[in-house]
Amino acid sequence: MKTVARSERWSGYALLTVMAIVVVIPFLSVFLASLQPAGTPVVGLTWPERWSWDNYETAWSVAGFSDLIRHSLIIAVGVVPACLVLAALAGYALGTMRLPGGNAMAAFFIAGLTIPVELIVVPLYFDLRNLGLTNSYLGVILVEIALFMPFSVFWMRTHFLSTPMSLVEAARMDGASSATILVRILLPLARPSLMTLGLLVFMWSWNQFLLVLVLIQDTTKHTAPAGLGFFVGQNSTDIPTLAAGTIIVMLPILILFVVFQRSFLAGLLQGAMKG
Amino acid sequence: MGSRPPVRNREARRRWRGYVYVLPAFAVYVAFAVLPALHTAYLSLFDWDGVTLGEWVGLGNYAEIFQDSILRRSVFNALVLVVFFSFVPIVLGLLSAGLLARYRRPGMGAYRFLFMLPQVVPLVAVGVTWRWLYGDDGVVNQALRAVGLDSVARAWLGDFDFALIAVGLVGTWVLSGLCMMLFLSGVQKVDPSLYEAARIDGAGPVREFLSVTLPHLRGELAVAMTVTTVAALASFDIVYVTTNGGPGEQTTVPGLLVYRLAFSEGKVGLAAALAVVLGVLILAIVYLINRLSRDRT
C-alpha cells in the first residue's frame, strides 16, 4: 500500500516536471537565440559563446521597439483606469443595491463575455473611420474598455456581493449618501480586487492584437504585439534581433507577473471565465 | 417600512437612481461592443466591398459559407484546433489532478508560476517563438536529430500534413498549464476524508478518481472547457504569426478569414457573415457546456 502510494505520488510529480520543462524550453530557446551575434544562423538550443546584448540595443532603437512599447503603454494607461472606475461604479450598484431589473442587467453584461474580437472588428473599422478614430489611440482605448467591461463588471459585482451588507446599512442609517458609502467605506476595502482587475486588464490590453491590426493600419503607430507581428514578416532571417524584440515585448508583462504573482494567479484562475 | 403611496414612490425612485452608477459602463459597452456586434449581423445581409453601395443579399452570404470549400475548411480547422486547445490540455490537467489528488503537495508554487507563464505573454510573441522552434534549425528538429530521427525532421509549419497539428500543439502548450492549475486547485478543496472512505471501501486509484475527484471538479471542468474552446474557435494571433493560414488552406481559421475577406479581399458582407457564424458557434458551445455542467449537479 505504501509503495503504491509512493509510485503514484512520484508519477504525479514526474508529469508536472515534464510539463514544466516543456513550458520552459521555448522561453529558454528564444532567450538564448537573442544573445547570439546578430545575423548569424542559430541552431535550436545553443549556448552563446559570447553574450551579445547589443541585439537588444538594435531591436530597441533600430527596429523601433521603443516606440512600439511607448504606444502600448499609452493605450494601457488609457484603458486600465477607465475600466477600474467604470467597473467599480457599475459593480457597486449591481452588487449592493436592489436595482429593478438588476439581475437582467448583470446577465446582459455577462453575456458579453462570449463576444470574440472577430465579431465586432469589421463594422468598428468602418464606423470609427467615419468618426476619424482609426489610426488613433483613443479609438483603440474606447473599444478595449468596451471589450473588457463584461469581465470587469462581473469581477467587481462579485466583489461587492461578498462585502458584508451590514457595513452599507450601518452607513446608510448614519445618513451617508450612496456615493459617500462607495468612496469612503467600500473602495478602500476593494483595493485587492481592484488591483487584480487592473493587472488582468493591463495584460489583456498589452496582448491585444487583431483589434490593433485593424484599427491602426499606420505601422508607425503600432503597439508592441502588432509591431512584432509585422516585424516577423519583414525580418524573419535575423533571428537574434527578432528574438531580442520578442523578449522586449514579453518583458513588461513578465516583470508584472513576477512582482504581483499572487494577484495575477488568483485573477487568472478565478477569472478564467473571460477566455 | 412605510407603505403609503408617496413614500413608496420615493423609494422606487431611489432604487432607480442606482442606475446612474451603471450607466457609464453600460454606455461604453453598448456603444463599442454590443452595437458593433449587431452592426456585424446587419452587414452580413449585404454584398458590400467596403467602398461602393452595398447590395442586399439576405442570407446569401450564409449560403456561400456553407458552399465555399475554403470557408467550410476554416470552420473544420477550428474544430480540429479544439482537440489540441481544449481536449488535450483538459486530459493532461485531469491526469495531473488525479495523480496528485490525495497528498499534501509541497513545491506547487514553482510549478504554478511556470505553468502560468504562457498565459501571460502576448500570443503574438508565443507565435514568433514557435515559428522559430518549428523552423529547419529550430529546437524541435534539433531534438529529433539528436535522437537519430533525422528523417522525421522537417519545416513543420510548411508541411501539408503536419502544419495544423503543429499549430494545435502551440495551443496545447499555452493552455495545458491553466487547466492543470484549475484542476489542482479544485482538487485541493476536496475533503480528504472522502479519499480515506474510498480507500476503506477498497477503491483503487482509477475508481477513486472517477467517484471522488472527477465529480468534485465539475465546476472547474466547465470553466476549463469554456475558456479553451473559445480560445480554439476564436484563434487568430498564433495562426496569423506562425502560418498565416498556409500551406494552402491547411491552417486557415475563421478569424483569419474574417480579417482577410474584410480588409484585403473587399468582401465585407461575407466576412461579417462568417463573424456571425463564429459568434453564434461560440455562444452555443458556451451555453451547452454550462447547461450540461449545471444539469448534472
Automatic annotation (TrEMBL), chain A:
Its GO CC terms are:
plasma membrane
Q: Where is the ABC transmembrane type-1 domain?
A: 69-260
Q: Which domain of life is it from?
A: Bacteria
Q: Where are the transmembrane segments?
A: 12-35, 73-94, 106-125, 137-156, 194-216, 239-260
Q: How does it sit in the membrane?
A: Multi-pass membrane protein
Keywords, sorted A to Z? Cell membrane, Membrane, Transmembrane, Transmembrane helix, Transport
Q: Name one Pfam family in it.
A: BPD_transp_1
Q: InterPro entries annotated for this entry?
A: MetI-like, MetI-like_sf
Q: Where is the signal peptide?
A: none
Query: Which PROSITE patterns is this protein grouped with?
Result: ABC_TM1
List the CDD domains: TM_PBP2
As for subcellular location, the record says:
Cell membrane
Q: Is Membrane found in the keyword set? A: yes
> What's an example Gene Ontology biological process for this entry?
transmembrane transport
Q: What is its main location?
A: membrane
UniProt KW Electron transport keyword: no
Q: Which family does it belong to?
A: Belongs to the binding-protein-dependent transport system permease family.
PANTHER family named among the record's database cross-references: ABC TRANSPORTER PERMEASE PROTEIN MG189-RELATED (PTHR43744:SF12), ABC TRANSPORTER PERMEASE PROTEIN MG189-RELATED-RELATED (PTHR43744)
Q: What is this protein called?
A: Carbohydrate ABC transporter permease
Species per Swiss-Prot/TrEMBL record: Streptomyces liliiviolaceus
Automatic annotation (TrEMBL), chain B:
SUPFAM superfamilies for the chain: MetI-like (SSF161098)
What is the membrane topology listed in the Swiss-Prot or TrEMBL record?
Answer: Multi-pass membrane protein
Tell me where in this chain the ABC transmembrane type-1 domain is found: 75-289
Q: Which domain of life is it from?
A: Bacteria
Q: Name one GO biological process term.
A: transmembrane transport
- Which keywords does this chain's UniProt record carry? Cell membrane, Membrane, Transmembrane, Transmembrane helix, Transport
Where does this protein reside within or beyond the cell? Cell membrane
- Would the keyword Ion transport be found if you checked this record's keyword annotation? no
PANTHER family on file: ABC TRANSPORTER PERMEASE PROTEIN, INNER MEMBRANE ABC TRANSPORTER PERMEASE PROTEIN YCJO
Q: Which family does it belong to?
A: Belongs to the binding-protein-dependent transport system permease family.
- The name this protein carries in UniProt is Sugar ABC transporter permease
